[in-house]
Structures are given as C-alpha cells and as structure tokens.
Specification:
Layout lengths: L1 H8 L13 H12 L11 E4 L4 H14 L7 E4 L4 H15 L6 E5 L4 H12 L3 E6 L2 H10 L8 E6 L3 H7 L5 E4 L10 H5 L6 E4 L16 E5 L2 E4 L1 H19 L6 E2 L1 H9 L2
Parallel strand pairs: 1-2, 2-10, 3-4, 3-6, 4-5, 6-7, 7-9
Antiparallel strand pairs: 8-9
C-alpha cells in the first residue's frame, strides 16, 4: 500500500501491483509492459521493484533488465523496503553538515539492507567508512562487498558488540549513522558522550528505544549534546521527497535504472 500511495502522489495515473513475483515470472510481466507501446510512448510505462525482500528485489531487477532487448525497454526503480531512498536521504543530510570527502564515518547496523547502502554511498562520496556489527565476521563481509576503488575511500570492518568496542570504533569519527533493526539501541548516550570528534549523528530506527540514545525520532538538524542530530522521522521527510522524485523521473525516458547511486544523485539535487 505504501509504495502505491507514493506512486500515485508522484504522478502515476495507474498502478498495477503484483505480489509473489520471482525471477522466473518476471519476463512475461515485462513483455506485457514493453509490447503494448513503442517509440516515445515507452517512457509512459515504468517498473518499480518494491516489497520487503531486498535480495530478491535485486534478483528481480536483474531479470527485468535481461528481458529488455533493443529499444524495447522501460525505466526501472529498485527500492525494496525503502532501502535506497532511506540510505540516500541519510547520506544527503550528512553531507549538508560535513564534507564527505575525507570524513571519518561509522555505520552501525551495517549488515542490513539500509546500512549496506549507507556505507556504500558514504564511501562513494570519499569518506573513510567503518562498518560496525556485533559480529566482526559479518562486518568484514559488508566491507568486502562494497565496490569502491582504493583511491576513492577506505571501508574497514569493526566489532561493536559492547561499550569498549563501540568507544574504540568511535575514535576520530565525525559522522555516525545507526541503521539497525527496530527498537535496538546501538549507541548508548554515555558512549556517545565520550566521542569528542562527533559532528553528525543520524538514527534511522523509528521504533523506541532509539538506535542512538538521546536522539529523538523527530529531530531534523537539531543540536543534541554538541552534535547535529537527525531521527528517523526527520530523515523521513527527505526520504519521501526523494521517493516521489525518483518515481516522477522514471517517466522522463524509457532507459533509466535507478539504484542506490542514482537515487542518491537525485536526492542531492533536491
């Protein structure tokens, strides 16, 4: 329902929703979209891949692109579980207060879909990114999966399972984004208070208790303990603007594929 309402608000005249889609059923759906129109009219149709399973969504995106041939294609937006638009909004907001190039950033809850994309976008912006997880092995897997040239940024894994590990991970960090699951505190206030280098803290958890203790959900660029703070609702306003803008952009041409990087670029221009 969420994705359909946003699509209508973004200007889509008709929304055809399909549930239970898997890669094997994609081709015929795509054929139904590309064979009904031709030429310049193809841009009047677009594919939005939503749902809650991000990994499956990525497989479906690949299947969608594989079904295209020649000029017969339509634009595609991937935003399962809001991962791309939420991550893009968080990084856009961080960049408003701290130049990303050369900045030291820590992503807590980095192994989830939003955390992975936040880390990826921060790294592409030139930040020195540390990805945190209670499991060092899982954090290492995230770091190794981010396709960033060595000349652009560094991505390092770290364990953040207890207060001592958190404090060590925060050394020199200027930007923290907490992207963990709902109702899980990833950064207690007393640990954060000891991080003198912090400038921007962003909590993407909308369910109490806060992912970053002391940051309220409605915070939108307010000062909290000497840091600029954003809560999930504060980020959500920009996320919704990016979401609507991305859907509207789909209908500008028939050859766009909007993933995290493209969604972030769009958000940066808003």
């Amino acid at each position: 329902m969420f994705d359909r309402v946003v699509a209508v608000d973004a200007g889509a005249d008709h929304v055809f929703a399909y549930g239970g889609v898997d890669p094997g059923s994609v081709r015929d759906l795509v054929y139904g979209a590309i064979f009904t129109r031709g030429g310049d009219s193809l841009k009047s149709t677009a594919v939005f891949i939503g749902g809650s399973n991000v990994e499956l969504g990525e497989e479906i995106r690949t299947a969608v692109k594989k079904a295209f041939f020649g000029p017969l294609k339509v634009s595609v937006l991937l935003d399962c579980n809001g991962a791309n638009t939420t991550a893009a909004a968080a990084v856009v907001l961080a960049a408003r207060h701290k130049e990303l190039s050369g900045a030291k950033a820590l992503v807590l809850g980095s192994t989830g879909p939003v955390g992975r994309r936040v880390a990826r976008l921060l790294a592409l912006g030139g930040a020195e990114v540390t990805v945190g997880s209670r499991s060092l092995e899982r954090a290492r897997g995230v770091a190794e999966a981010i396709p960033v040239p060595d000349s652009v940024a560094t991505v390092c894994p770290v364990a953040t399972g207890d207060a001592d590990q958190l404090a060590a991970a925060l050394a020199g960090v200027e930007v923290v984004v907490a992207a963990g699951g709902p109702g899980v505190c990833l950064l207690p206030r007393d640990v954060r208070a000891g991080a003198g280098s912090l400038r921007v803290v962003i909590d993407l958890n909308a369910v109490p208790p806060e992912g970053i203790e002391g940051v309220e959900g409605s915070d939108a660029g307010v000062q909290r303990d000497g840091h600029v703070a954003y809560g999930a609702i504060g980020v959500g306003g920009l996320k919704m603007k990016i979401h609507k803008a991305a859907i509207a952009k789909l209908f500008e041409s028939n050859d766009q594929v909007l993933d995290a990087e493209q969604v972030f670029e769009l958000g940066s221009r808003l």
